[in-house]
Specification:
heterotrimer; A alpha+beta; B alpha+beta; C alpha+beta; B: Aldehyde Oxidoreductase, domain 4; 3 domains; seven-stranded mixed sheet; C: alpha+beta; Enolase-like, domain 1; 14 strands; 23% strand
Chain lengths: 158, 761, 299
C-alpha cells in the first residue's frame, strides 16, 4: 500500500506516493531527484544523509518518508538563495578549505546550518560537538570548524 | 627556507560540492538501468564444489547473473597472476566475490544474490602471520608455483614475495655495538574507508563499454577491464564522476570488469552500489597487518651503528601492490637516519583475509610507528633526549642513504626542530599529559603522465588532463601551474578530467603523484602553448619572440608594457588559423643512483626519489583508569618541496593527521580466529569525529630538490598520515609510563598494559 | 505490504495499537533494526510523533516532572529543571548517539527499546521513574525498576503505548550523575555506564541509588552497592566498595567492543566517577554536564 506524502521540500510543496517502509533518503534521491543528500552507511553513523526536518538535523537514512508528511524538509539543494547565491556557510566552507572530496559536505552544511540557527556565536567546542555526527575523512575537520565560526561571525555582523 | 602564509584558493569544483549539484557515481541514472548486487564468499577459506543459481534466476525481476563461468578464463594480478574475477575453485577471504546479479531493483538483486546456493567444503583458515610461514602451514594458493609472476620476486609457499635491503655487515656491527635494543611490534590492519561507498555503472553501445566508476585510477581500471574481458583498451571508456574520497582504497581496478560483464549479459546498463558493510569487506585494498622485529646497535653517544629488521606483511588472499610496498617497508625500517650497516627483510605473507594494498602512505605508518617508538626506547636506554638522538642521526645533505644513494639538500632536520619548537618540547605538563615526537620520510614516484592545454577564442583556457581528482585538490591546483606559465589567472582555466577517452594517460590519484607528474605534463603543455602565443605576438608586435613575455593576461615586450596584446586577442586570431592547443608529458625527473647489489626483490622502490621529510609532535592526555587517550594538540612540520597550493597542502596535512590519529587509537580491523572481520560497521570501526580531532598547526619547510617535480614540488597527500601513530605512541609511553607495542593503541590495550605495570607483571 | 497511520489524537492511536499496529516515533531504531534484519518491517505502523500532548515537559503538582514520551533528548537536556534537579538524566540525554539522534530520538523510545546499553535508563532508575502506559483499556503506571525484563523485552503490552515518564520530586540534598565509558567524545554507544543518586544529610548518605548500563541483560539497579553507600559518609572507602560491588554484580559480555574483563574493571571506574559526581553535586559543587567528559581522567 502506498501513502500520499506531502511536505515542503526546500520551500516548495511536493507530494509523493510512497510505501511506508521506504526511507526519506531513498525517496529524496530516487523519487524527487535530490541526489545532493548522500548515502554513506545507512546506519546513522556517518551523517552523509543529513537533512533538516522542521529545522532539526535528521539522518534521512533512518527515517521513514511517510513521517515527513506535513513537515518542512531542507536538503543541501535548498541552502543557497533562489538566485543561486551561496549562503555564508557555503562560502566559508570554500574559503577555509572545508571541502575536499565533498561527499560529507552536504550533511556537514546541514548540521552547521542547524547549529547557527540556534546558536549564532558557537564556541569551537560547540561547533565540534554539533558536527560530530558527520564523519569527514579528508579535512581533519579544522577547516570546517573555522568555516562555521567565520560564517557565524559574518552572519552576526550582517 | 620559508614558512608559507596561506592565501585562499577556491577550488573549481567547490561550488557544485557545496550546493549538492556535484554528481557522484551513485547519483547517476540512465534509461533502462538495472541494479546489481554481489554475492560474497562469506567464509574465510573453502573449496567451492558448486554454485547453484537456479533459485536466484527464478526470482521475478532478475535479469542476469554472472559468475566466473561467464567471463574469459584469465588470471590477473599486479606482480603475480594469482586470481580470477570471480572465485571459482576456492574462496580465500570472506569478502571474495562469487557472483553478481542484475535485477530491476536493488532489493530484488540483493534478495537474489542471497538465494545463490554455494556448496562449500571448509578449508583451514590461514590468519596468523607467523603461523602462515611455519613449515607445514596450509597453503592459501596450493598452485602458486604455476602462477605467472614477475621474475624479480622470490616467492615460496605462503610467502608471496621477499625483499631485502643490505648495506655493510649489520650482524657484525650489532655484535660489536656497545648497546643493542631488540623489540617486536605488532600492527592490526585498518581500512581506507572513504565516506563514499563505491558505485559502478556500465553501459554497452555496440562493442564499446562506458564505465562510470568511483575509481582513483581510471586508466588502470580501463586496463583491468580490457585485460580481464579480453578486449582492446580503446573499446573501454572509463569516466569518474566526482569521487567521494579514496585514500588508496579505490586504487587499482576493482569491480569494473564484473559490472561490465554483467551489463553485457543483461544487454542493459547496470549499476552496482556497495553498502557500507560491502565497502568494508570486499575491496582488495586493506591496510596491512604487520609483525615488525627491530634491532639497533648504538654507541654510547647516540650514534647509530647498525639496524636490522624483519617485517612480516599481510598480503591477504590475493596480491595487489604489496611486493613493491614491501620494498618500501624495508626502507622505512631504516628510517631517515644515517646508519652505516643495514639488513632488513620484508616478507609478504598470503593469508585467508582481505587482500591488502595501498592505503594512504601504505606500510609507512605501521613501520614508522614501530621504528619511532624504537628510537625512543634507544634514547631511554642511553639516557639521551629522544629529540637529541634523532638530531644526531637524521639524514643531512651529503649523507649516504640505505642503498648508498647520495642524500641531497633536504629539510629533515629543520622539520624535526620546528615541530619540537611548535609544540614546546620539554615544557612542564600535568602528570597525565605528555608530548611525543616522530619523524619520517616518503618518496616521490616519477612516472609518465599526460595533459592538453588549449586556449578558447575568448582567451579562457581549458586543461584536459588524465589526472584524477580524489578530493585532495591536486587536479584543482593544475590551473595554478598553467596560469603561471601563460601569464594568466588560475580561474581563467576550466578542467576536463577523469575521462580516459579525453585526457592523456596518468597513474591516477595514487602515490601522491598527481601534481608531481601531471603538474609536469601541464607545465610542459603550457610551455609549448606559450611558445605559440609568443610567436603570434611577435608577428603582431614585429618583435623577436625572445624579447616577449606573457604576464597579466597580455603578451608584451619585456620592459615596455605599452607594447602589449591581450592573450584573448591572440586566441581569437588563432581561431582563424592554427588553433592554440598543445599537449605535454615532460620527462620524469631522474631517480638517484643506488648501490643495491646485495638487495633481493628489487622493483625500483629502493631508490627513494625526491623524498619528503617530516616530523610531527603531539600532546596527549591519558585517562589512566580507563586507558582512553585523547590527542590534545598536534604540530606538524613538513618538507614537501615547493608548496604550490598552500590551502590545499595544509588540508592534506590536517586530514592525514586525523586519519593517523584514527589508525593510532580506534581504527583497527578486528578479526575472528578464522579471519572474518568483527567490526565491519562504522559504529564499531571508529573514525575520529570533529569532537575528537585536536587543534593542529602546520608548517612547510621548503628546500629546493633537483629531483623534484615542476617548480621543485613533491607529493603532499600521503606523508601526513605516516608519523602520527608513532608520535602518539611516544606520547602515550611518556604519559602512561608504559609502551604500547600493539597497533591500534586502543583504550583496552593501554589499560591492560597499565594494569600489568601496577600488578608488577 | 505494510499500512501506516499518523493520527493526531491519542485515542485513535490506541485503537490502532489495539488492532495490532506497531508504534513509531523517531523511527531510528525501527528502520535500522529492519535493515539489520533484527525484525521484519511491521505490517501495521502507527506514527505517534504528531500526538497532541505527547511531547514536552510539565511540572507535577508535587514538585516532580512529567516528561512526555515523545520528548527528544535535546529537549530534555535543554530543560532547566532537568539540569538542576535530575542532572544525571541531563548527563545521559546529552550524550545519546549523535546531535541528530538527540534531536529526533525520544525518551519513550529509549525506554521502550529496552536496550541494555540505553543511556537514559540508569539515571531514570536512580530517579525512581514511573512509566505511564495507555491503551484503550485505560492507564497503567509501572515503576521503571523491573519494566525491562530482558534485552528488548518489557512489561509493555502490545496494545499499550508509553505516554509519559514521571519523575517524583528529588529529596533535598540529593543529586545525581551518569557516567559512560567513552572511547570517542561523541558518537558512542555505552560499552559500560553507571548512574548514581545520593542524598547527603549532615555528612551522611541517607539515600542511595546506583544503576549500571551495558553490564547486564537489562539496565538495572545494584542494591549491593546502594546498601554500602547508605549510612556511610560517602568517603573514598565507601565509594570504592560500592564501585567494586557493581563490578561484582556485573555480568559483562565479551565482544568486539570490549572484553568482559575490561568491562568489569571499567564498571568499577565509571561507578566510582558517577558516585563521585553525584556526591560533589550534592555538596553543591559544579560537575559540568555531561559528566562523562568532565570526569575524564578522574580517579
Amino acid at each position: 500500500m502506498r501513502y500520499e506524502t506531502s511536505f515542503r521540500l526546500n520551500g516548495t510543496p511536493v507530494s509523493v506516493s510512497v510505501e511506508p517502509s521506504r526511507t526519506l533518503l531513498h525517496v529524496l534521491r530516487e523519487d524527487l531527484g535530490m541526489t545532493g543528500t548522500k548515502e554513506g552507511c545507512t546506519d546513522s553513523e556517518c551523517g552523509a544523509c543529513m537533512v533538516l526536518l522542521d529545522g532539526e538535523p535528521l539522518n534521512a537514512c533512518s527515517y521513514l518518508a511517510v513521517q515527513a508528511d506535513g513537515r518542512e524538509v531542507t536538503t543541501v539543494e535548498g541552502l543557497s538563495a533562489p538566485d543561486g547565491s551561496l549562503s555564508a556557510l557555503q562560502r566559508a566552507f570554500l574559503a577555509h578549505g572545508g571541502v575536499q572530496c565533498g561527499f560529507c559536505t552536504p550533511g556537514m552544511l546541514i548540521s552547521a546550518t542547524a547549529l547557527l540557527a540556534r546558536d549564532p556565536d558557537p564556541a569551537e567546542e560547540t561547533v565540534r560537538a554539533a558536527l560530530s555526527g558527520n564523519l569527514c575523512r579528508c579535512t581533519g575537520y579544522q577547516g570546517i570548524v573555522q568555516a562555521v565560526r567565520s560564517a557565524a561571525a559574518e552572519i552576526r555582523e550582517g | 627556507m620559508a614558512v608559507v602564509e596561506l592565501p585562499s584558493f577556491v577550488r573549481q569544483d567547490g561550488r557544485e560540492k557545496v550546493t549538492g549539484t556535484a554528481r557522484y557515481s551513485a547519483d547517476l541514472s540512465t534509461p533502462g538501468l538495472l541494479h546489481a548486487a554481489v554475492r560474497l564468499g562469506g567464509v574465510a577459506h573453502a573449496r567451492i564444489r558448486g554454485i547453484e543459481t537456479a533459485r536466484a534466476r527464478a526470482l521475478p525481476g532478475v535479469v542476469a547473473i554472472v559468475t566466473q563461468a561467464d567471463v574469459p578464463d584469465l588470471r590477473y594480478g599486479t606482480w603475480v597472476r594469482d586470481r580470477t574475477l570471480f572465485a571459482s575453485d576456492a574462496i580465500r577471504w570472506e569478502g571474495e566475490i562469487v557472483a553478481m546479479v542484475a535485477a530491476t531493483t536493488e532489493a530484488i538483486a540483493r534478495e537474489a544474490a542471497a538465494l545463490i546456493e554455494l556448496d562449500l567444503e571448509p578449508l583451514p583458515p590461514v590468519v596468523d602471520l607467523e603461523a602462515a610461514i611455519a613449515p607445514g602451514a596450509p597453503l592459501v594458493h596450493p598452485g602458486w608455483a604455476a602462477y605467472d609472476g614477475d621474475a624479480r620476486i622470490p616467492r615460496e609457499g605462503n610467502v608471496g614475495s621477499r625483499h631485502t635491503i643490505v648495506k655493510g655487515d649489520a650482524e657484525a656491527a650489532l655484535a660489536g655495538a656497545p648497546v643493542v635494543v631488540r623489540e617486536r611490534y605488532v600492527a592490526d590492519g585498518s581500512h581506507a574507508l572513504p565516506i563514499e561507498p563505491r558505485a559502478i555503472t556500465a553501459e554497452w553501445q555496440g562493442d564499446r563499454v562506458t564505465i562510470q566508476t568511483s575509481s582513483q585510477v581510471p586508466y588502470l581500471a580501463r586496463t583491468h577491464v580490457a585485460s580481464t574481458l579480453g578486449m582492446p583498451e580503446g573499446k573501454v571508456r572509463v569516466i569518474v564522476p566526482h569521487l567521494g574520497g579514496g585514500f588508496g582504497g579505490k586504487c587499482e581496478g576493482h569491480f569494473e570488469p564484473h559490472v561490465a560483464a554483467l551489463a553485457r549479459i543483461a544487454r542493459r546498463p547496470v549499476r552496482l552500489a556497495f553498502d557500507r558493510r560491502e565497502e568494508f569487506l570486499a575491496p582488495d585494498h586493506h591496510r596491512e597487518r604487520m609483525v615488525i622485529d627491530l634491532a639497533t646497535g648504538v654507541d654510547h653517544d647516540g650514534t647509530i651503528l647498525a639496524r636490522s629488521a624483519r617485517i612480516l606483511i599481510d598480503n591477504g588472499a590475493y596480491g595487489a601492490d604489496e611486493p613493491y610496498l614491501a620494498q618500501l617497508a624495508a626502507v622505512f625500517a631504516v628510517g631517515p637516519y644515517r646508519i652505516p650497516a643495514v639488513a632488513t627483510e620484508s616478507l609478504v605473507v598470503y593469508t585467508t583475509t582481505q587482500p591488502t594494498g595501498s592505503v594512504r602512505g601504505p606500510v609507512a605508518p605501521q613501520v614508522t610507528w614501530a621504528v619511532e617508538q624504537h628510537m625512543d626506547v634507544v634514547a631511554e636506554r642511553l639516557g639521551i633526549d629522544p629529540l637529541e638522538l634523532r638530531r644526531r642521526n637524521i639524514l643531512v645533505e651529503g649523507d649516504e642513504g640505505p642503498v648508498r644513494q647520495r642524500i641531497g639538500a633536504n629539510g629533515a632536520k629543520t622539520a624535526l626542530e620546528r615541530a619540537a619548537e611548535m609544540i614546546g618540547w620539554g615544557r612542564p605538563l600535568p602528570a597525565d599529559e605528555a608530548i611525543g615526537i616522530a619523524t619520517g620520510w616518503w618518496p616521490s614516484f616519477p612516472g609518465p603522465s599526460g595533459a592538453v592545454v588549449k586556449l578558447n577564442a575568448d582567451g579562457s583556457g581549458t586543461i584536459v588532463t588524465g589526472a584524477q581528482e580524489c578530493g585532495t585538490g591536486s587536479v584543482m591546483a593544475l590551473p595554478i601551474l598553467a596560469a603561471e606559465v601563460l601569464g594568466m589567472r588560475p580561474e581563467e582555466f576550466t578542467l576536463l578530467y577523469q575521462d580516459t577517452d579525453a585526457g592523456g594517460w596518468d597513474a591516477g590519484a595514487s602515490g601522491s603523484q598527481t601534481t608531481f607528474n601531471n603538474g609536469r605534463a601541464v607545465v610542459s603543455a603550457a610551455t609549448e602553448l606559450r611558445e605559440r602565443l609568443l610567436a603570434l605576438a611577435a608577428e603582431r608586435l614585429e618583435a623577436n619572440p625572445a624579447d616577449l613575455e606573457l604576464t597579466d593576461g597580455v603578451a608584451r615586450v619585456k620592459g615596455s608594457p605599452e607594447a602589449a596584446i591581450p592573450i584573448a586577442e591572440l586566441a581569437a586570431e588563432a581561431q582563424g588559423g592554427r588553433l592554440l592547443i598543445a599537449d605535454g608529458s615532460g620527462d620524469p625527473p631522474a631517480v638517484p643512483e643506488v648501490d643495491a647489489g646485495g638487495c633481493v626483490g628489487r622493483l625500483g622502490g629502493e631508490s627513494f626519489a625526491a623524498p619528503c621529510y617530516f616530523t610531527q609532535a603531539v600532546r596527549v592526555r591519558v585517562d589512566r583508569a580507563t586507558g582512553v587517550v585523547r590527542v590534545l594538540e598536534v604540530a606538524a612540520a613538513h618538507e614537501s618541496g615547493t608548496i604550490v597550493n598552500p590551502i590545499g597542502a595544509e588540508g592534506q596535512v590536517l586530514g592525514g593527521i586525523v586519519m593517523g590519529i584514527g589508525q593510532a587509537l580506534t581504527e583497527g580491523t578486528q578479526l575472528t580466529p578464522d579471519g572474518r572481520q568483527r567490526n565491519a560497521d562504522m559504529l564499531d570501526y571508529k573514525l575520529v569525529t570533529a569532537a575528537d580531532a585536536p587543534p593542529m598547526r602546520v608548517e612547510f619547510v621548503q628546500v629546493p630538490d633537483p629531483n623534484a617535480g615542476p617548480r621543485g614540488l613533491k607529493g603532499v597527500a600521503e606523508p601526513p598520515a605516516v608519523p602520527t601513530p608513532g608520535a602518539i605512541a611516544n606520547a602515550i609511553a611518556r604519559a602512561a609510563g608504559t609502551r604500547i607495542r600493539l597497533l591500534p593503541m586502543t583504550a583496552e590495550r593501554v589499560w591492560a598494559d597499565l594494569a600489568d605495570v601496577e600488578a608488577g607483571r | 505490504m505494510s499500512r501506516y497511520l499518523a493520527p493526531a489524537g491519542l485515542e485513535e492511536a490506541l485503537v490502532a495499537l489495539a488492532g495490532g499496529a506497531r508504534p513509531v516515533a523517531g523511527g531510528t531504531d525501527l528502520v535500522v533494526g529492519v535493515r539489520q534484519g533484527r525484525f521484519p518491517i511491521p505490517d501495521d505502523l502507527v506514527a505517534i510523533h504528531r500526538l497532541a500532548g505527547f511531547r514536552g515537559i510539565a511540572e507535577g503538582a508535587d514538585g516532580g516532572l512529567v516528561i512526555g514520551a515523545g520528548t527528544s533528548h535535546a529537549e530534555i537536556v535543554a530543560h532547566p529543571r532537568v539540569t538542576r534537579d535530575w542532572t544525571g538524566l541531563a548527563d545521559a540525554s546529552a550524550i545519546v548517539g549523535s546531535p541528530a539522534t538527540r534531536a529526533t530520538g525520544t525518551l519513550g523510545g529509549n525506554v521502550a527499546n529496552a536496550s541494555p546499553a540505553a543511556d537514559t535508563v540508569a539515571p531514570l532508575l536512580c530517579a525512581d521513574a514511573v512509566i505511564v502506559c495507555r491503551s484503550t483499556a485505560g492507564e497503567r503506571r509501572l515503576p521503571l525498576d523491573g519494566f525491562a525484563t530482558a534485552p528488548r523485552r518489557t512489561l509493555l503490552r502490545p496494545d499499550e503505548l508509553i505516554v509519559a515518564v514521571e519523575l517524583p520530586a528529588p529529596a533535598p540534598g540529593s543529586a545525581s550523575c551518569y557516567v559512560r565509558l567513552e572511547h570517542r567524545r561523541q558518537m558512542e554507544i555505552a560499552i559500560v555506564g553507571a548512574g548514581a543518586l545520593l542524598r547527603l544529610e549532615g555528612g551522611r548518605v541517607t539515600a542511595a541509588r546506583v544503576a549500571m548500563t551495558a553490564l547486564a541483560p537489562t539496565v538495572r539497579r545494584v542494591p549491593e552497592a546502594e546498601r554500602i553507600l547508605l549510612g556511610s559518609d560517602g568517603g573514598a572507602a565507601a565509594v570504592t566498595a560500592a564501585a567494586e560491588a557493581v563490578a561484582a554484580a556485573a555480568t559483562p559480555i565479551d565482544d568486539t567492543r570490549a572484553s568482559a574483563a575490561y568491562r568489569r574493571a571499567m564498571a568499577a571506574v565509571v561507578t566510582r566517577r558517577a558516585i563521585g559526581g553525584a556526591l560533589a553535586r550534592a555538596r553543591g559543587e559544579t560537575v559540568t554536564i555531561p559528566a562523562s567528559d568532565t570526569l575524564f581522567g578522574a580517579a
